[in-house]
Every structure is written in C-alpha cells, then in structure tokens.
Design a protein that fits this description.
9 strands
Length: 385
Amino acid sequence: SSTSSASTSVMASAELAVDNKSDQTPLARERQHAQDEREGRLRFVVVKNDGLDRSLISLIDMKSIYSKQLPKMGKEYIVRLVLDRSHTSLACVFEGEIVGGVTYRRHATQAFAEIAFCAVSATHQVRGYGTRLMNQLKEHCKREGIHFLLTYADNHAIGYFRKQGFQKQVTMKRERWLGYIKDYDGGTLMECAIDTQVDYLNIRFVAEEQRRAIAERMEAGGAQQQEAEYAGYDPAEGGVPAGLQGTSWRESALHCSMQGKPVPLADCLQAVLAEVATHPDAWPFQTAVSTTLAPDYYEVIKDPVDLASVRARLTPRAGAPPHYNSLDQFLADLLRMCENCRVYNGDNNEYYDCAVRLEAFVRKKVGEVSVSRVPADGTRPESGG
C-alpha cells in the first residue's frame, strides 16, 4: 500500500493482557488498581527522551518489554522509535518496576496521536494492566488536547483495541490524518475518540452504581409496577410516553443545516448523495456488483451496498418510517461501500484508487452538514429525572 514519509508510525501489535485469564472480575481488578494507585504501589509515568539518565533507563526498560512481547518487530526499529524525541511513552510501574508501557507520537496541530507500541510484560498480563494503561493514556490525552487516538493493529491486537473503545471505522476527516501517518502492510487502522466528559479511570465504577440504582428501583417498584404494560408511543401523536411522566424526558427534533442554511435531514442526505453519485470516481459504485463480472463477490463481501441501494433507502415509502434517522447511518453506508471495494479488489488498481478518492469526497460533503438534536417545543430540557 502507499506510504508517507511524514511519520514513523508502526503497527501496534499486542501480546497483551486477556482480562478473563484472571479469577478476578474486571470490576474487582479496577478496584484493586485504584487502591494500588492510592497507596503508591502502582504508578503511570510519562517518559520522554530528555537526555536524563532516569528517563533513558525507563525507556530502555520499556524497549525490552516491547522486544519480548512484540517479536515480529525488529529490535533496532523498536529502539529507534522509543528513543525518538518526537515520541512519548507512558510507563506502567508496579512496586518500582516497569511492567508495561505505551509509546505514541502526538500530532499537536491535528489534535490526534498515533500509538506505535503497547505491551505489558508476560508476568503481569493477567492483572489487567493493559486496560488500566489505556485508560490512563486517555486521561493523559485529555490533558494534552488530543481528541483521537489512531493505531495500526495486527490480527492479534484487534480484539484488545476493540475492548478499549477503538473501532475500524475512522471518523476523522481523511485530510486531518492523511500524510501524518504511514500505511502499514498487514495492519488494520483503528480509531478511538477521546471524550472529555468521560472519566475513564472511574467509568466502570459509575456503570456499576447505575446498574445497582436501576436494580434497586425495579425492586422497590414492586410486582405490580414491574408487570405494568405500556402502550406504544407514536411520535406523530406527541405527548409523553407512558412510564416517563415526571422525568426530564422531552420530545426532540433534529435540526439540520447545510452550508449554514436550515435544511431537513432527508433533503441534506439527498443533496449529498446527488453530488457523490456524479463524482468522477463514483462509476464503480452506481449499482450492485454483478456476479457475472465477480462470481465470488458476495462470498467475500457479506454486507454489500451501492449508490442505487442508498438512493432506494432515501426514497420515502408510504406508511414506513425513514431508513436513515441520522447522518451517521448515512455516512456508515457510504464508507462501507468504499471499504468493500478496497477489501475485494486490493490495492494498486483503479477500483481501489476510486474508492480512496470517493471516500475523501464523501467525508468532505458530509462535513458540510451540521446536525443537532433540540427539544421539539423549543425549551431547554430540565436536569434530573
């Protein structure tokens, strides 16, 4: 695949902790980690090659872990990136010993970082430090103004990164990262969006508290309330759905605008599709792939989509709700269409090139649409409930 010399990004492989190897539940491990951090046994330290002896020692320790846990990576290559001054490392230190780390490169002007290496020593993997390490990195990203994490993951690492909130669909606009990282043959590009409103170190505790609160409320309601049946809610009739009276629920509506002008969502999507369909690189995507031309296409591609099917989904049907209720649903179909093309055809051919260029155009046009959800009655929703 094509590469860029703008970055020294590599695939972040994983011989990382599989959390279910331990007898402890994930919640119990999180509690233990939090206690160890409070008592100073577990620390996470940011390390850079600033020339200081202690920094170099820490970086060499992490290099040794990477070399053992990522045997496919050349040792010289690992050393070069870990000691590179444009890279930063976050060390996981347990009782004074570095037991894991993650090394990344920050692209400050683009507000994203690319992970180069991430590993935990074999003797400490079952403790679940891989998850804690990634959550600490996300908290560090919030302080650094990093909005996204990108990494190339091999087949062994995809599962780990998915558990940490990464996804294969990159939502960043292509021009924001293209040219800043280089393609890695055999790796899958994955993205994680950093939410500044989320406390990543306590998210599991918050979820457990919410689960308990719901369970207690259900039990307090008694059998009569639990067995109550509510009529379905018809948005066309308005009002408050049964069971939500007295809560902060408010009927909401989508507010869409395109190039600064208010436009209904369906019209926005139709306008974007019209421009995509007439793009010079859209010719391979106009209709469904013919099995005459590609007999095994539907054996390889299990979720096919084309511009004709997207257009059909946008066409209003009497008595049926719209297929696309959000801009994200629409974008997901178009991105999958381009990805299907790349997966089936491989690279270094005109179909692949068309898919790359058309995806960039799709992201640009979708970026011109602004969508927000506002209360249908124009009032601000009340807090609580």
